[in-house]
């Protein structure tokens, strides 16, 4: 029997430790021991959060609920997205999985993480802004894609000024980033059809249509293919005549 087995950390301790480690990523000069230790602690903390949410060791629903509550109270999700570029590669992958697992969590018909993010819109905007940093773009892009699966979050982005950043991220970035940005544009415009129909009826104009038509002529066949699927949304019967008038 191992009498010296380490005591398992509580959800509160895990979240607090991870939050503190994220805060220390900018403490001291680049390459310093403080930053190196903070990076290691971030990686370890994300692994622990992911493991608990994933059910490693059969933690039970009470511990998962406590972890989620602590994460909301500490504003852990905004901190993860904002600082994701400072994480190492494995930590970025774990960060995306943490978002995915939390977003799937439901209590009856409620989705607590979706409800939380709706009150913290900056999480959505910072995830989109990740396309400005190539090294982290695919990780924050995956986080954004997980969020956009939920209509209340997709509605936030669709009705924001930040939504119009997509053309820049699609046209003025590297191929990989461009394709990921287009995948999230498609996710925004095709998953929640009634919401998008309402938006297009009120906001679809010549500039948006021109952007989509230009993308349909892009040199990349992959981008052409994705543009076609998005473009089809504008041709649904409710407002097809309006679009044809623009053409």
Automatic annotation (TrEMBL):
<dbReference type="InterPro" id="IPR016024">
    <property type="entry name" value="ARM-type_fold"/>
</dbReference>
<dbReference type="Pfam" id="PF08569">
    <property type="entry name" value="Mo25"/>
</dbReference>
<comment type="similarity">
    <text>Belongs to the Mo25 family.</text>
</comment>
<dbReference type="InterPro" id="IPR013878">
    <property type="entry name" value="Mo25"/>
</dbReference>
<dbReference type="GO" id="GO:0043539">
    <property type="term" value="F:protein serine/threonine kinase activator activity"/>
</dbReference>
<dbReference type="InterPro" id="IPR011989">
    <property type="entry name" value="ARM-like"/>
</dbReference>
<protein>
    <recommendedName>
        <fullName>Calcium-binding protein 39</fullName>
    </recommendedName>
</protein>
<dbReference type="GO" id="GO:0035556">
    <property type="term" value="P:intracellular signal transduction"/>
</dbReference>
């Amino acid at each position: 029997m191992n009498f010296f087995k380490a005591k398992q950390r509580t959800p509160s301790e895990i979240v607090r430790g991870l939050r503190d480690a994220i805060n220390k990523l900018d403490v001291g000069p680049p390459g310093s021991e403080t930053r190196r230790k903070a990076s290691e602690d971030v990686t370890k903390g994300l692994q622990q959060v992911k493991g608990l949410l994933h059910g490693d060791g059969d933690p039970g629903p009470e511990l998962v609920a406590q972890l989620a509550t602590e994460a909301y109270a500490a504003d852990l999700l905004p901190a993860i997205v904002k600082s994701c570029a400072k994480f190492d590669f494995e930590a970025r992958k774990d960060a995306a999985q943490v978002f995915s697992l939390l977003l799937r969590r439901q209590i009856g018909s409620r989705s607590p993480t979706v409800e939380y993010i709706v009150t913290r819109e900056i999480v959505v905007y910072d995830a989109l802004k990740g396309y400005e940093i190539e090294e982290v773009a695919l990780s924050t892009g995956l986080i954004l894609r997980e969020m956009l699966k939920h209509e209340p979050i997709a509605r936030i982005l669709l009705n924001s000024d930040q939504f119009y950043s997509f053309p820049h991220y699609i046209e003025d970035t590297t191929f990989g980033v461009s394709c990921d940005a287009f995948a999230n544009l498609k996710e925004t415009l095709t998953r929640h059809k009634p919401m998008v129909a309402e938006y297009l009826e009120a906001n679809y104009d010549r500039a948006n249509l021109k952007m989509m038509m230009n993308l349909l002529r892009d040199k990349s066949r992959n981008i052409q293919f994705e543009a076609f699927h998005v473009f089809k949304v504008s041709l649904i019967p409710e407002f097809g005549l309006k679009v044809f008038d623009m053409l």
